[in-house]
């Protein structure tokens, strides 16, 4: 069966957005608008698998939607909405809970990492949320998802659920559509190497919203002064920059800062080192600070403008939800028919 080329991706509103979210995900969404149908969701139902203050959840939902738009996602070309506005996500997730096997869920390393030794105390939602992730993707019959390394296992589970559904209900699918498959086997979308941004204070750790030092993380709503201050105070070593990428080995802080410069300037690491190789941090950090301010400040300003205009943001999210629902409802109606629900 030929499926419409369609991309789905989403970000969870569970904290303030930072540079890692931008370079690792949001910026990569923009060019896909020209080659695929694109659906970009704020996955607020995923957020509540752990406790979220309701007011914070609302604020972060608006901020993520605003970040999509400020970064260049066009809400007239792409569908932008928050997940909870389209109830079919939850309905399909329940059906997938009944398709997926317990053993599949138990193997999910992210659950093990998040639950730790308290697995019996965490929510059932945290254990089962890969079924909701599969529903997010397959509700729109998305053919591709731009995922990072930390989500590849969940995409494999989505593929397993789609295969099992197609197999378990092959007779009903054939009778309904004459096809052998109802859901596509969603592929990973190659969008070039993802930038894995590290803490500005410890190059061995991912940049995180929960760092103990505010100087470790560049947040997407930071103003120009804060961005420049954090770059200039970032941890570095005593050596000058090498002239080749191999010279960054075993220098995690240097590798991180050079990688950020390369990502923001749309260059590779070799090109950056060709310009700055042999120079010290007194030259490189101010150049990186200027670049980061020039790249990120306009996005921060636009995010702040959008977040302040709740009426406009509500309009965009409602419009996106209406357009998402127009795709989801006929697919969900077919699913109900296939599994034998009486309507």
UniProtKB/TrEMBL annotation:
ATP binds at residues 12-14, 20-21, 148-150, 197, 206-210. GO terms for biological process: tryptophanyl-tRNA aminoacylation. A motif ('KMSKS' region) lies at residues 206-210. InterPro entries: aa-tRNA-synth_I_CS, aa-tRNA-synth_Ic, Rossmann-like_a/b/a_fold, Trp-tRNA-ligase, Trp-tRNA-ligase_bac-type, Trp-tRNA_synthetase. It catalyses: tRNA(Trp) + L-tryptophan + ATP = L-tryptophyl-tRNA(Trp) + AMP + diphosphate + H(+). It is found in: Cytoplasm. HAMAP family: Trp_tRNA_synth_B (MF_00140_B). Belongs to the class-I aminoacyl-tRNA synthetase family. NCBIfam families: trpS. This is Tryptophan--tRNA ligase. It comes from Devosia aurantiaca.
